[in-house]
Structures are given as structure tokens and as C-alpha cells.
Predict the 3D structure of the following.
Amino acid sequence: MSVQFKDYYALLKVPRTATADAIRKSYRKLVRQYHPDVNKNADAESKFKDIGEAYEVLSDSEKRKRYDRLGADYRSGQEFRPPPGWENMRHGFQGRPESMGGFRPEDLGGFSDFFETLFGGEQFHGAGPGAGAGHAWTPRGEDHEAAVTIDLADSFHGAHKAITLQSAALGPDNRVQRRSRSYKVRIPSGTLDGERIRLAGQGGPGRGGGPAGDLYLRVHIKPHPVFHLHGRELEVSVKVAPWEAALGARVPVETMEGKAFLNLPAGTQAGQRFRLRGKGMPGGSRGPAGDLMVIVQIAVPRHINEKEKKLFEELGRVSAFDPRKG
């Protein structure tokens, strides 16, 4: 059988090297753009269905590998015949959880001939009675994502927080309505900026008895007045006196867990960095803890008494050090 090739990457407007996260973001954007409840253009339903089919393949690592084996030489609309050995291959269809309310791409009918040629047609799997037999399936609810902003102390030590999120949804009169919902969230110790926290079953409701989707909270950490976060490393500055830098000293350093001490070697320079191992963000199950990087700032006294002035003047007379010569 001859069918037309579909360029799933072009349909989702992503390069072939796109990450799973980039594919998901593009899918969500496009499915909102072409959702038949929103877009009344004549070709919206067709594009909506194509986008859903493309995401079904590219969001599944095994299907994507199989599709990528075809190479990048085909173009959309070209006649396509599967290579030998691709017959009788069947893959399960789990139902995509991330479309917008109303109905979903798979609700518009089966997949294309091209999809069925590659993956052996549709096998639907769901959570209810009769799932996996023909089209008796119970689709899972949508996964939702929201942003939550926390303090550095909460991400370092871990915390339990109550948060309230607002969402927009179409009401019975097709007008946008705002809804508020509160959650109790556990922030694991060592949570980093940009990580996601999963709240199982707190996403969109399933249909026909299907399970609810999940809610993912994308974490943003507020800037801290003392510490700067770089991945799992923390960075802090410490001020030292000129004589401490010149002679060496044991100076206290602020950490997220209280005071620590740093042994400065003689001749320490302004801007020099020292590492306190394991004093950065906790690792836990993610691996070892990060380090605390200490940046030295040499502080000069703004006001000195007569004795101090004479000592500095004496130092200036006897010292051969010229800072402009390094």
C-alpha cells in the first residue's frame, strides 16, 4: 500500500534534535491554537488531529526511535512505502494527557494510514473495563503545569507549604471563568530552580472513569540577599581585613546551616575563591551535596585612629610592595 509521508517534526514545528520538553511545549501551544472549540477555520480540525498524531509518536521514546529510523530524506506529502520488516508491528496508544478542554485529537477519529503503516494501527489502553479491546478505552485526564515561587531556605531545608493557584476555564456559557484551588505541597530538601514537583491526580479529570491527570509545579527560587545559587552550588562573599589577607587568618563564613570557618592562607587576594565542600545545596537521592564557594572581599577601614594611622604610615615607608606592579 502506498501512503503519504507525514513530517511529524514539521507538524509540531520543532527540529529533529528537539528535547522532550521542547516537543511538549510546542504541542501545548499548537493544540490551543487549533483546538476546534477555539479555532473555527475549516482546516482547524484536520490540523488539530495531525498535531495529536505527531505528538503521539514524538512523545513516546520507542515510537520516536522507530520513526527516526526512516531518516530525514522524506518530505511531507511524498509517497512512502515502509522498508522490509516493518509489517505486523503493533504499538499501544496510551492517550495524550495534555490537550485543552472539550475534546482531544484522538476524538476526531483514528490515526492516518501513514501512522498505521508504521505502528500497525491503534491499540487503545485505558483504566476501565474493556480497556485494550478495540476502542473501549478510558482516557486519562490532562496534565497541568503551574509555577510556584519559594524562598531559598525552603528549597534548602525542605518545607510544607499551602499554595493557591488560579486557572482559567470555559464555563457553560463559553465565557472564561477564573477558578481558585488550594494545595498542600511538600518541597523536598535540595529542590533546585526549574525543577518540577508532581502532584499525582491533581490535574484535569479523566473521562468515562479514566484517571485524573497530574499537576506539575515548576519551581522558581527567589533571589537571596546573601547567597547566590548556581545549580547545586551556593556562592557567598566574605569581607576580610587587609592584615587578615596578608598574614592569613581563620575567618567565619555564613552558610545555610549557620557559621563555618575558612582558613585563609597568607597573601590571599581580593576576589579569590575558596571551596567549602558539601556546604551547598543538599543532594539526597539526587547525588552528593553541592559546595559553597566563598569569594574574598578585602575591606579597608573608613575611619582610623591616630595609632592606626601611624602604623599604616610606617608600613608604607618600610614595605617594598607595589600593587601596581603585581
Summary: The two ends are 79 Å apart (CA to CA). The chain has three domains: 3-124, 144-221, 228-325.
